């Protein structure tokens, strides 16, 4: 089994420990990763998508064709990459006139968008291609005794029509929960489970308003689940929940700290990865929960 | 309340810009006229929860009313998370997310875009990444990865390809960022 790894910007430059987690976990589960050499930004929402539809799809299509030429699907850990790439694909696949204009642009660089590769998010890919039971058999360490709160992430769910992997009910997502339970975790439910974390364009535009959302979310998690660990399905949510807590504590909005990791980091730890390499850049103190995982 | 205060809340429709609706439809918001202002999108929108003055339903309403300047003078359209809850719940398949993107496209054509977007576009063109941290090489090496990811930053030919693509898009005609041919 082989799949193309789309790294994106934030994972490559802000949280390469998460990139390393993916590069460890997939091969450890028997899935080879292709580098999709020469990939670029997805492009992210504030750039080409905000300029025009065809330009957005053209930059996206160049990335799609790298995977198409190799006959591979694309996996990513970033919700924005997942959303932007899936949406550009959906636009080109459902609007022949957009596809034709994009291919006119791509002709100059000797590429053609065909629409033969699917865009997948890591934990959905593993859920559907391997299944929770196989992952359970493969892990060396388990999350037994750990209570976790989940942050699936907006782009992992909506708009469901553009995604290849679908939840039965996107407002009551189950896949990330099942995957974490397969690793042995107790997953607690909290009221603001599917709320936005506030990362992204909102944080760039108005930090204070963005932090209102992450504050509400963290307090809901703390009061209703009191988790040992937050597990996210998206790299942007990881960055927001991991970096916001220190600032929220300084401004006396919260008085606690909950360690935060992406699902792929937790999975890599369970498969035996070196914690420094796959979680070494966390701002929250993850040492205690990492040790508990390695003992489990 | 003084008459001046009262007047502040009055929308003068004789000043409204009826061309805005067509512009939005041309820039990707094809389903705009399907909107019945039911506000289901607003109920799902993180921007409402965070307290922004404009959000999906109100942005569409302002477009209907031709309030171009009201939308351009406010940063709300740039705070949209592109989360697409609105697209998911809209009973009329308006795709409110795409309408907000179309409003950004209108704004960009009037050079009313935030510095961060200009920087993102420039970084995308120059490096292939909208978010690029020049000092990230050390961090990458620290966790056992090569200094550069296998993207356009490690592959000059791929970057040239991407730049050739971008030069063929609408961005090139807008003159927002310099787009010199690399190596010329």
Structure description:
The complex is a heterodimer of chains A (296) and B (184). Helix content of chain A is 50%, strand content 9%. With 296 residues, chain A is an alpha/beta fold. Chain A has 2 domains: 2-121, Glutathione S-transferase Yfyf (Class Pi), Chain A, domain 2 (Up-down Bundle), CATH 1.20.1050; 132-295, Rossmann fold (3-Layer(aba) Sandwich), CATH 3.40.50.11810. Chain A is globular, with a radius of gyration of 19 Å. Chain A starts with a strand and ends with a helix. In chain A, 59% of the residues are buried. Chain B is mainly alpha-helical and 184 residues long. Chain B is elongated and about 60 Å long. The model of chain B has no long low-confidence stretch (mean pLDDT 93). Chains A and B meet through helix 1, helix 2, helix 3, helix 9 and helix 10 of A and helix 4, helix 8, helix 9, helix 10 and helix 11 of B.
Structural class of chain A: alpha/beta
Shape of chain A: globular
CATH class bucket of the largest domain in chain B: Mainly Alpha
Write down the domain tally of chain A: 2
Protein chains sharing the most extensive interface: A-B, 70 and 62 residues
What is the β-strand count of chain A? Answer: 8
Low-confidence stretches of chain A: none
Low-confidence stretches of chain B: none
Short description:
With 296 residues, chain A is α/β, with parallel strands linked by helices.
Which descriptors apply to this entry?
A: 296 residues, alpha/beta, Glutathione S-transferase Yfyf (Class Pi), Chain A, domain 2, Rossmann fold, 14 helices, B: 184 residues, mainly alpha, Fumarate Reductase Iron-sulfur Protein, Chain B, domain 2, Helical_ferredxn (chain B), oxidoreductase (chain B), metal-binding (chain B)
Question: What's the structural blueprint in terms of helices and strands?
Answer:
The complex is a heterodimer of chains A (296) and B (184).
Chain A: E1 2-5, H1 10-13, H2 16-28, E2 32-34, H3 53-70, E3 74-76, H4 79-94, H5 96-107, E4 119-121, H6 122-129, H7 132-138, E5 147-151, H8 175-182, E6 186-187, H9 201-205, H10 207-224, E7 229-232, H11 235-250, E8 260-262, H12 263-270, H13 275-279, H14 287-295
Helix pairs in contact in A: 2-12, 3-4, 3-5, 4-5, 10-11
Chain B: H1 3-8, H2 19-26, H3 40-44, H4 46-50, H5 56-64, H6 68-72, H7 76-79, H8 85-89, H9 96-109, H10 115-127, H11 136-142, H12 156-167, H13 170-174
Helix pairs in contact in B: 2-9, 5-9
Keywords (chain A): Oxidoreductase
Protein name (chain A): Heterodisulfide reductase subunit B
Domain Cysteine-rich (chain A): 3-85, 148-242
């Amino acid at each position: 089994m082989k799949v193309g790894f789309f790294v994106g910007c934030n994972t490559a430059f802000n949280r390469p420990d998460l990139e390393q987690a993916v590069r460890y976990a997939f091969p450890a589960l028997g899935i080879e990763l292709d580098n999709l050499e020469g990939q670029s930004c997805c492009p992210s929402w504030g750039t080409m998508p905000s300029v025009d539809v065809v330009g957005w799809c053209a930059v996206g299509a160049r990335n799609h064709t790298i995977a198409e030429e190799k006959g591979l699907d694309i996996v990513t850990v970033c919700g924005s990459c997942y959303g932007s790439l899936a949406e550009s694909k959906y636009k080109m696949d459902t609007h022949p006139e957009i596809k034709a204009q994009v291919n006119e642009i791509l002709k100059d660089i000797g590429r053609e968008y065909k629409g033969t590769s699917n865009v997948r998010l890591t934990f959905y890919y593993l859920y559907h291609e391997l299944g929770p039971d196989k992952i359970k058999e493969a892990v060396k360490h388990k999350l037994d005794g750990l209570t976790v709160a989940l942050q699936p992430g907006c782009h992992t769910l909506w708009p469901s029509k553009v995604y290849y992997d679908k939840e039965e009910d996107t407002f009551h997502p189950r896949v990330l929960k099942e995957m974490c339970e397969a690793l042995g975790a107790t997953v607690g439910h909290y009221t603001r489970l599917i709320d936005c974390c506030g990362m992204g364009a909102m944080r760039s535009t108005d930090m204070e308003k963005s932090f209102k959302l992450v504050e509400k979310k963290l307090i809901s998690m703390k009061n209703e689940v009191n988790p040992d660990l937050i597990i996210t399905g998206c790299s942007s949510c990881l960055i927001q929940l991991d970096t916001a807590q220190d600032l929220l504590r300084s401004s006396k909005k919260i008085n606690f700290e909950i360690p935060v990791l992406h699902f792929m980091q937790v999975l890599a730890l369970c498969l035996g990865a070196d914690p420094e390499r796959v979680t070494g850049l966390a701002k929250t103190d993850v040492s205690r929960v990492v040790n508990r995982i390695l003992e489990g | 309340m003084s008459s001046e205060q009262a007047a502040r809340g009055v929308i003068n429709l004789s000043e409204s810009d009826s061309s805005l609706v067509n512009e939005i439809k041309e820039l990707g918001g094809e389903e705009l006229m399907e909107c019945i202002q039911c506000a289901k999108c607003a109920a799902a929108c993180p921007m409402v929860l965070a307290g922004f003055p404009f959000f999906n339903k109100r942005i569409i309403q302002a477009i209907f009313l031709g309030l171009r300047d009201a939308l351009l003078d406010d940063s709300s359209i740039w705070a949209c998370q592109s989360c697409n809850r609105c697209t998911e719940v809209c009973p009329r398949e308006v795709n409110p997310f795409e309408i907000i993107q179309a409003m950004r496209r209108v704004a960009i054509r009037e050079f009313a875009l935030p510095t961060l977007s200009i920087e993102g576009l420039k970084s995308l063109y120059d490096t292939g990444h909208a978010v690029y941290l020049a000092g990230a090489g050390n961090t990458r090496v620290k966790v056992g990865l090569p200094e550069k990811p296998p993207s356009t930053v490690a592959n000059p030919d791929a970057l040239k390809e991407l730049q050739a693509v971008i030069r063929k898009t609408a961005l090139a005609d807008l003159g927002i960022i310099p787009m010199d041919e690399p190596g010329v």
